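The record is passed on directly below:
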Amino acid sequence: MQTQTQTIKTELLINGRQVLVGHQFLEDIVRDIPDIKENKEVFNTLVLSDNPDVREYLTRVDNLSKKSVHVLLNDTNQEVVDGVLSNSDLAKLISEKALLKIIDSDNTKLLMTIASNVDDYVKCDLCKIIKILANHKSAAVRYNLLRCWSSDSVPIKILKQLTQDKDIDVAKEAAKTLERRI
């Protein structure tokens, strides 16, 4: 499902006088909107902006609604989707259905991000997600499962499987992680 974007009309009033502003002003000002719960409605409007830089910036905002996160996950801009997947606060709002849809798209960059941040998707069956990623054709995706903190979620059974991986880097990293965990 692709969400329709729209041109956001930005108005600025200074002491009752209206100042004409364009898309560049919106790009600049969005960074200064406080990331607080009271601004969720403003963020809900801005996620529909036809300006990809505005949408991409919003992936750094922690106070987005579930609806806004869903809109950004369905963005046509890969950087916007990647930004949502990378934000640990937003990742907590991602449903398993939405995450599996992204996994099914087979976009290696996005799969690498999911693998690196697998612990953050608390609404998902992590064992199921990890199993899919551990068996992905891309060594980069499998390797990212073993990086940093995400490797703590990888079950011993999958770590043992990955120690036999055809990619030497994956196999070595899995062996190191397994040794650390045992």
About this structure: DSSP finds twelve helices and two strands in the chain. The beta strands are 12-14, 17-19. The chain has a mean pLDDT of 91.
